[in-house]
Amino acid sequence: xxxxxxxxxxxxxxxxxxxxxxxxxxxxxxxxxxxxxxxxxxxxxxxxxxxxxxxxxxxxxxxxxxxxxxxxxxxxxxxxxxxxxxxxxxxxxxxxxxxxxxxxxxxxxxxxxxxxxxxxxxxxxxxxxxxxxxxxxxxxxxxxxxxxxxxxxxxxxxxxxx
Length: 162
Description:
It is a single chain. By secondary structure, the protein is mainly beta. Helix content is 9%, strand content 50%. The protein is built from 1 helix and 10 strands. It has one helix spanning 2-16; strands spanning 23-28, 33-34, 39-45, 49-59, 67-76, 79-89, 106-118, 121-129, 142-143, 146-155. The longest helix has 15 residues, at 2-16. The chain is globular, with a radius of gyration of 19 Å. It starts with a helix and ends in a 7-residue tail after the last strand.
């Protein structure tokens, strides 16, 4: 009984040591992600430090693409710090979703910025999808099957250091 109780407390202590995110927010779409709908997120860094920024994207089986293209911009005080066109795989070569989840809804954690030495201050991230059908220059107006999109800002932790 003592060992069981001790193990329980050790696990509880281990799980409680995980750092809280600096910022996290998710936008939900009722009928897919419309191209003209930019997702905008504002956050404040209270101290200078190294951070990671991830995108969180939820999709279901109605999403008909195996990847997603995003245009992402990070600004501070009207100065553009990062402006990227990004591609992320959403399924493997066999068509199986790469995200996590037990039902038809999958959650994807997509890495954008790694170990960036950020200054203290206010930041704005804007993201919109840039999907097109094969052979077309016309934008896909609505990404059916995309349920939500968000960002997660975390303090960088160097696991290789220890």
